[in-house]
Design brief:
With about 400 residues, this protein is α/β, with parallel strands linked by helices. It contains 16 helices and eight strands.
């Protein structure tokens, strides 16, 4: 997104920041607002979780080895993860210690975001580049608690190899829908389930058109399009449908498709199901919402450590770029959540000039927001206090 597509508000005081926030549209309870501070403004349009990044242009992105990174870290430091109750908590701890993950740090406190836009990881003010604050207005439906099924599913993407695609979740759901439709004549299925089935059928057909030499394509290509008008109208004329010869043809097609899907589940799909069930024993693989797999959600973590508490921390957790993409494709759906100015209707970015950063950091200190507050571990508290008493002699 270029500067022409957004409104840039430059600030030099905390008061300016509050004025900028007041210019945003009213959320009216439909969204929650989160902030992210960037030390270098040029990364606004490329900001993504560290797992999608690479050390240098000569290196491969970490995402290619995400499952290996995840398992190796836990294997090397098992005691550090012994108290983690699920994969999401493991990812939060890895993020805490600087490992690349599919999480992106955000905060509900704009002053915390301002701190990160001014101060580098070493604790010093970063004067080399202008900073920025990116503001996300996340729909309530995409804000999840740490223990939700959606968070469990997206977190466990970290454990699977690069062969998995969200298309498999769609196919599993479709097989389940086939079974429901075939039970239609028993009166079990309703019009809404038929509609969902037909929508899934269309999504699969479109997705498989992009796949080359896919084992599912053969049966979908061989089966002619299912008569939509007949299926939708069948519920209204139940007796005619029950006796129809057309019904038998359609249901036979569904049975063949269902069987093909169930008999050809890729190993990566089976492993994914296994990892999820390790956390949620009664989870059923065809209950995965394939649309969730291609979304970005904001997760409110368990407030079980001082750093997350002080930072008012939350995380964006990322799925896949599309139904037919593997993990290697960078996800950009979070850019759709960027906050809008109430007057211009454009996305708002807050610019922090590099020559104003020190001034802003000093203002934050007056409000008690310094390195010891942001990182309340003993080593950081010690450094901040020591600096206070590092006084030149007369």
């Amino acid at each position: 997104m270029s500067d022409l597509d957004c409104e840039i508000m430059e600030i030099s005081t905390i008061s300016d920041l509050l004025t900028a926030i007041k210019s945003l549209r009213d959320l009216n309870g439909s969204h929650e607002r989160f902030y992210r501070g960037l030390g270098d403004r040029q990364y606004i349009d490329f900001d993504c979780p560290s797992i999608y990044r690479k050390k240098t242009s000569e290196h491969e992105p970490y995402i290619k080895y995400e499952d290996k990174i995840f398992h190796d870290i836990i294997a090397k430091a098992p005691e550090d993860f012994s108290k983690c109750e699920n994969t999401f908590e493991c990812l939060v701890k890895m993020q805490h210690y600087g490992a690349p993950t599919r999480l992106l740090d955000v905060t509900s406190n704009p002053l915390v975001a301002l701190y990160f836009s001014c101060v580098g990881v070493d604790g010093s003010v970063s004067f080399e580049n202008d900073g920025a604050i990116v503001i996300y207005d996340i729909p309530q439906s995409n804000v999840k608690n740490f223990n939700s099924d959606t968070v469990t599913i997206l977190s466990n993407i970290s454990k699977i190899d690069n062969n998995y695609k969200p298309l498999y979740a769609l196919l599993n759901k479709f097989a389940k829908d086939c079974k429901k439709i075939r039970e239609f004549y028993k009166g079990i299925c309703n019009d809404e389930e038929i509609k969902n089935y037909l929508d899934s059928y269309d999504d699969i057909k479109k997705s498989l058109e992009k796949e080359q030499n896919n084992k599912y394509r053969e049966i979908f290509d061989n089966e002619s399009n299912i008569d939509k008008e007949f299926l939708v109208g069948a519920r209204e004329d139940y007796l005619d449908f029950k006796e129809s010869s057309k019904k038998k043809t359609i249901l036979k097609k569904m049975e063949r498709i269902e069987t093909t899907i169930q008999n050809n589940r890729p190993h990566s799909d089976i492993r994914f199901d296994h990892y999820i069930k390790q956390e949620k024993l009664f989870f059923v693989h065809d209950n995965i919402n394939y649309k969730d797999l291609t979304s970005v959600f904001c997760v409110k973590p368990k407030l079980n450590n001082p750093r997350i508490i002080n930072q008012n921390g939350a995380f964006l957790i990322f799925g896949f770029a599309s139904l037919t993409d593997t993990k290697s494709s960078t996800v950009t759906q979070h850019f759709n959540y960027k906050a809008l100015n109430s007057n211009s209707g454009k996305h708002l970015h807050i610019k922090i000039p590099k020559n104003k950063k020190e001034q802003l950091v000093n203002q934050l200190k007056l409000l008690g927001i310094d390195r010891a507050f942001i990182y309340p571990e003993i080593e950081n508290i010690s450094k901040v206090i020591t600096e206070q008493y590092t006084i030149k002699s007369d």
